[in-house]
Amino acid sequence: MRRRRIGPKMGEAVRIVRRAGGAVPCCKYLAERVGPNGSLRYGYDIVGRCLKAGILALDTEDPLAKRGSAGAVTLTEDSP
C-alpha cells in the first residue's frame, strides 16, 4: 500500500460516511456536507479526490444507491 496524504476535508468525508453506517446515497449528498458552507463545487472536488485516492468508492449495487446516480459512496478497505 502506498502512502498518501489525506487532508482534513477528505478525513471529514470519510467520517461522514462511517457515521452513516458505511454508505451514503450519492456523491451530491456527501458533497453538500463536506463543501465549505454547503458549496457543491468544492464538495465535489473533495469527494473526487477521495474516490481517486481509493479511500471511498462508488457502488451501484448498494441498496442505498439513488436511481440515476453513479452509485452509493461507500468505504473501502484502505479507508483510514
Please provide a written account of the structure.
This protein is of the alpha+beta class and about 80 residues long. The protein has one domain (about 10-75). It contains 3 helices and 3 strands, in the order H-E-H-H-E-E. It has helices at about 10-20, 25-35, 40-55, and strands at about 25, 55-60, 70-75. It has a 3-stranded antiparallel sheet with strand order 1-3-2. The two termini are about 10 Å apart. The mean pLDDT is about 85.
Which helices and strands appear, and what pairs or packs with what?
Elements: H1 8-19, E1 23-24, H2 27-34, H3 40-53, E2 56-59, E3 72-75
Antiparallel strand pairs: 1-3, 2-3
Helix pairs in contact: 1-2, 1-3, 2-3
User: How much of the residues is beta strand, in percent?
Assistant: 5-15%
The helix/strand series, from N terminus to C terminus, equals HEHHEE
Whole-angstrom Rg: 12 Å
Strand line-up of the largest beta sheet = 1-3-2
Describe the structure using short key phrases.
globular, three-stranded antiparallel β-sheet, alpha+beta, 80 residues, single chain, 42% helix
Question: What can be said about this structure in brief?
Answer:
42% of the residues lie in helices and 12% in strands.
